[in-house]
């Protein structure tokens, strides 16, 4: 699997590469030093806000394609995040939201399976409801204007407290849709 990057500009001796993985890597100085120590590379500057790496090099010693191979190899080898497939589409906060949403979805599924065995709420029902509430309240900045919060409150009043699992499921579904919308929006902003 190749690293996801794009060349912003390239002239002999100077290369700017946009590398979304830089958004999640805080070892900028270490990366700059490592690349600067390669033969033929004079200076490396990382700009984390725009996720770019500017490399000044000697074209007669090292070529642009060799530098791109170094970048690809370094970032492919340095990926240890369990949700690495989302790395290029989402920031770390959004990846945490996706992880919480997946965990909540599993809890809701387990609660529904267990509910068939007993009509009374058990640990899984309470865990699913608590996990849904935590997921909703930790996602986004303005908590009470989010569609998932509004959906949770409206479905609680319409379905009642006896149907907490259904309220959690509806709220989780709206939150999951909102998270995937945020992922698509962040991916579009990445390439503007």
From TrEMBL:
The chain crosses the membrane at residues 123-140, 160-180. It holds the Pfam family HMA_2. Keywords: Membrane, Transmembrane, Transmembrane helix. This is Uncharacterized protein. It comes from Neobacillus bataviensis LMG 21833. The lineage of its organism: Bacteria, Bacillati, Bacillota, Bacilli, Bacillales.
